[in-house]
Specification:
Layout (H helix, E strand, L loop, with lengths): L1 H25 L3 H14 L1 H10 L8 H21 L5 H6 L1 H13 L3
Helix pairs in contact: 1-2, 1-3, 1-4, 1-6, 2-4, 3-4, 4-6
């Protein structure tokens, strides 16, 4: 059950971070919109892990692996989403990779 919660939090927080980064970046042009989205999603990856730690879904020593997993998952997500903008399926399916990355990171960290 905690894996599902971590998955959902990482997906939502990553999506919100990507959205806010895109909004800020759009003020500086099209290229900055995409760069802002990437940076925003990666920047909030520690927040996903912080929430998971606060809720005791992960141990303190799993914080950094969870953060790294969520960040890498978001980068893959954003890359797939940007390259499949013409179809709604790609971005929707890719959004799950942030949560999957957080779970993989948490499980690969020290126990």
């Amino acid at each position: 059950m905690t894996s599902l919660r971590l998955f959902l939090v990482a997906c939502i927080v990553g999506g919100v971070g990507g959205f806010i980064g895109s909004v800020v970046g759009s003020a500086f042009g099209k290229e900055a919109l995409f760069a802002g989205g990437f940076l925003g999603g990666v920047a909030v990856a520690p927040l996903s892990a912080r929430i998971a730690r606060w809720r005791r879904w992960i141990e303190p020593r799993q914080y950094w692996p969870t953060t790294a997993g969520a960040a890498v998952g978001f980068i893959v997500t954003a890359t797939i989403a940007v390259n499949t903008l013409s179809s709604p399926v790609g971005p929707i399916l890719a959004a799950s990779l942030t949560g999957i990355g957080a779970i993989v990171g948490a499980r690969s960290g020290p126990r």
